[in-house]
Amino acid sequence: QVQLVESGGGLVQAGGSLRLSCAASGRTFSRYAMGWFRQAPGKERVFVAAISSSGDSTNYAGSVKGRFTISRDNAKNTVYLQMNSLRPEDTAVYYCATPSLLFRVCVLSQDEYDYWGQGTQVTVSS
Questions:
Q1: pLDDT < 50 stretches in the chain
Q2: 106, 93, 95, 20: CA torsion to nearest 10
Q3: Could you tell me how far CA 4 lies from the centroid of its own chain?
Q4: Cα–Cα distances in angstroms (integers) from residue 15 to residues 11, 67, 84, 88, 125, in the given order
Q5: What is the 3-state secondary structure (H, E, C) of 61-73?
Q6: Who's near 5: CB < 8 A, 6+ residues apart?
Q7: How far apart are CA 38 and CA 93, in angstroms?
Q8: How far apart are the C-alpha atoms of 93 and 122, rounded to whole Å?
Q9: Widest CA span in the chain
Q10: What sign results for the dihedral spanned by CA atoms 74, 57, 31, 111?
Q11: Residue 113 in contact with residue 35, Cβ under 8 Å?
């Protein structure tokens, strides 16, 4: 059974940084793409960033491009989201996710993701 456990969320002032981690278990981590999504209060969950199984390809939502960096350590079965220059509008619950199917490329659509973590809260104060 695939399990994803996020950590690293918290309260930070605008302009600050946080690094989220997502530890995966239950299958061969290095074979599967990973993604980060977020859901702000009263809003739908949206795509933030994705990374291919090998880590050589990444993709970002326009709102975070240049500020956030997704990476993975296949030896540690962990995917990261480094978030810099945080803004109040980045406040949300952040989720990591992974598809059940094998994709060699980044996966951008939520519909392709089958396994989700429980989420970690990120709050950015102004």
A1: none
A2: 90
A3: 11
A4: 12, 10, 7, 9, 9
A5: CCCCCCCEEEEEE
A6: 22, 23, 117, 118
A7: 5
A8: 6
A9: 41
A10: positive
A11: yes
Q: What is the DSSP letter of 54?
A: S
Q: What 8-state DSSP symbol labels residue 77?
A: T
Query: pLDDT digits over 114-123, tens only?
Result: 999 999 999 9
Q: What is the pLDDT of residues 7-31, one digit of tens each?
A: 999 999 999 999 999 999 999 999 9
* Distance, CA of 117 to CA of 126 (rounded, Å): 28
Q: ∠19-66-4 over CA atoms, to 5°? A: 35
> If you ran DSSP here, which 8-state letter would residue 39 be given?
E
What are φ and ψ of residue 30, in 5° steps? -70, -10
Question: Are the CB atoms for 71 and 55 separated by under 8 Å?
Answer: yes
